[in-house]
Amino acid sequence: MQLRRISTAFVGSAHHRDASVTYQLASRMSNLMPAAVRMTNSHAEDASETKNNGSRIEICVPTPDDMEDIGGILSVGSTGGDVILLDGDLGAGKTCFSRGFVRGRTGRYDERVTSPTYLLSNSYDVDGGSTKLYHMDLYRLSGAETDLLPLDLENVFTSGISLIEWPSRLNKKPSERLEITLTIDSSTDAAPEIEDEDSKYRRMTLIPFGARWVERLQFLQSEGLLEDLM
């Protein structure tokens, strides 16, 4: 079974999908992911202990709906200890990606997911409340240890699933992680008749650190879930 393919066709304001299809299938898809890929990982304190082996995926994201779809797809099989770091241009879609991820992982496709810019962290119960999914936005922080201390990041990175916007504020990155960088492609209009930043394609670069993230991306590629955007 496959999730429905992501369409790269931009159809302007009429581009509205039945989000429940993506998130319900994402939930079912997690049962097909190999146990070795879904098993809980551990993190070393020094990010240099786990190297990236050169693996990376670059994809084009035409619309906000596509961005949410990718978030939903990447939520497949996520478990405690998973860390995704979201970096890139302001307004490039980090919160939009997170919305798709949260809705996909919780199975609540109408969940209200907003940027925690002022709250710093929003959390959601998954797996019947046994696991927390954290969505953090560190934009307003300086990166000082005293700023980060209330977030209890050591516990979050170990036991929770975490989506971290503006990870440049972190003093240390978990050794096993997925780094996602989003940029606005100013050279290409997804809809030339609409002259605003939302009409621009987004470029997404995914770089896995640690064998588990490499295996997960390979699994999603083998299922053809990202190929339409590559």
What are its keywords?
disordered N terminus, single chain, 7 strands, alpha/beta, 230 residues, seven-stranded mixed sheet
Account of the protein in words:
This protein is an alpha/beta fold. The chain has 7 helices and 7 strands. It has a 7-stranded mixed beta sheet with strand order 1-7-6-2-5-4-3, sandwiched between helices. A hairpin with a 4-residue loop joins strand 3 and strand 4 (131-137). The chain starts with 18 loop residues before the first helix and ends in an 8-residue tail after the last helix.
Give the strand line-up of the largest sheet.
1-7-6-2-5-4-3
Element-level helix/strand string: HHEHEHEEHHEEEH
Our Rg estimate from Cα atoms comes to 17 Å
User: How would you classify the helix and strand content by structural class?
Assistant: alpha/beta
Q: Bin the strand percentage.
A: 15-25%
Short overview:
This protein is of the alpha/beta class and 230 residues long.
Q: What's the helix and strand layout?
A:
Layout: H1 19-29, H2 35-38, E1 57-61, H3 64-74, E2 83-88, H4 94-106, E3 121-126, E4 131-137, H5 145-148, H6 153-159, E5 161-165, E6 177-189, E7 200-209, H7 211-222
Parallel strand pairs: 2-5, 2-6, 4-5
Antiparallel strand pairs: 1-7, 3-4, 6-7
Helix pairs in contact: 1-4, 3-4
